[in-house]
Amino acid sequence: MQNKSKAETKQNTIGLNPDGIFDLCDEFPVNDNDVCFEEYFWIENYILSPNQRYIAIFVRRNEVKIGSHSLKEYIIFILSLIDNEYIYYGEYIEEELEIQDYFFSANSKYLIQHKPTKLLYIKVLSKQNTREKQISSESFLSSESCGNINLLINNTTILTIQLENDFQQIKQFQYEIKFYQKLFSNFAIVESNDQTYIIYIQNQKILLRWNQQSPNNRYFWKSFIVQGQDYANKLRNLQTGKLIRNIHPKLGFRQFSQDQQSIYLFQIVERHPKIKKQKEKVQNIFSRFDILKGVNKQLNINIIPFENLQTLNNEYYIDYEDVEEVENGADKIKRLRYFHISKLTK
Question: Which range has the top average pLDDT, 46-50, 252-256, 300-304?
């Protein structure tokens, strides 16, 4: 991991120097001039922890032959974004990386892999604390700030696991469950088909309900929720069910984020000049919409985004660079860069 004093940057294309660069050429040097580095290692994906202190980077190595099967080997690095230090390294063999199977716990203490027949816990700040449990479940539902996770065992059954002590609790419902998360101390939010319920946990009595079609976004802040799809979301009061506002992001990059102050929608909108000159660089519009306050702010960020996976929040802008195309036409990515932008978002 390079510090920003050593990072190589192109000053004519970005307005800020990266605070860190994860470069695979540094981690896995290939000395054979006849070997194409990108055919051996490349960055497949990454995940940022909820507290925005850690980043898990998934590196793919070329296929491994096991008997008659050809599997892929993945290397997971967990880095501290505070001091650029490694805090975890592990190797895993998978048929294919499904990034939705990996997530940080809500308290950022664990990186978890969920599979239909197992759970893998990686305790972020303890290199030796990796546990695997054989648990059959259909899907991961949610992670709670207290350290619990909720798994869907079947359509009407939820398993809650306390990660610190592995205590398990089963909850049975009379209707199909799509999502479940505990709210406050005695209540929970439940999604069933196109209905959202607020229930009293002890007897599962439905206290509030509203219609919401198949949401894939859910962001909670105290007694508020942002719920919906990438292209249309709603802000509601969880105590009354009242709709406060609709949110319709613009075309282009869009990402929701939250911190101790609010829930935000970050966007990057590309500006096209009327007459494009050769090699002309046009500054994109970076903006942040405070969903709770209803206030939009344009961010003074002069970075040319790469056309790959990006993260934008109050603390960081992250994306890939050095994307190269190899012979089979696939993009192989070997560098990830991040910028600490909190001074620009205040």
Answer: 46-50
Residue with tokens 């206290």: 207
* β-bridge mates for residue 190, sequence order: 180, 197
- To 10 degrees, the CA torsion angle through 76, 81, 83, 85? 0
Q: Taking residues 145-166, what's their average pLDDT?
A: 92
> Alpha-carbon distance 83 to 3, whole Å?
9
**CA–CA gap between residue 214 and residue 227 (Å, rounded):** 10
Token pair belonging to 206: 């439905």
Q: Report the range of poorest mean pLDDT among 5-14, 63-72, 198-207.
A: 5-14
Which long-range contacts does 116-119 make (Cβ < 8 Å, 24+ apart)? 119/151, 119/161
pTM of the model: 0.83
CB contact at 8 A, 324 and 301: no
H-only helix segments in the chain = 24-27, 342-345
Quote the CA–CA distance of 234 and 218 in Å, as a whole number: 10
Give yes or no for residue 39 having a pLDDT over 60: no
What is the CB neighbour count within 10 angstroms for residue 88? 20
Q: Classify 84 as helix, strand or coil.
A: coil
Output the six-digit token pair for 215. 């949401």
The DSSP secondary-structure symbol of 276 reads P
Residue 315 backbone class (left: φ over 0; alpha: ψ -120 to 50; beta: rest): alpha
| Separation CA 33–CA 30 (nearest Å) | 8
Q: Which residue has the tokens 């869907």?
A: 152
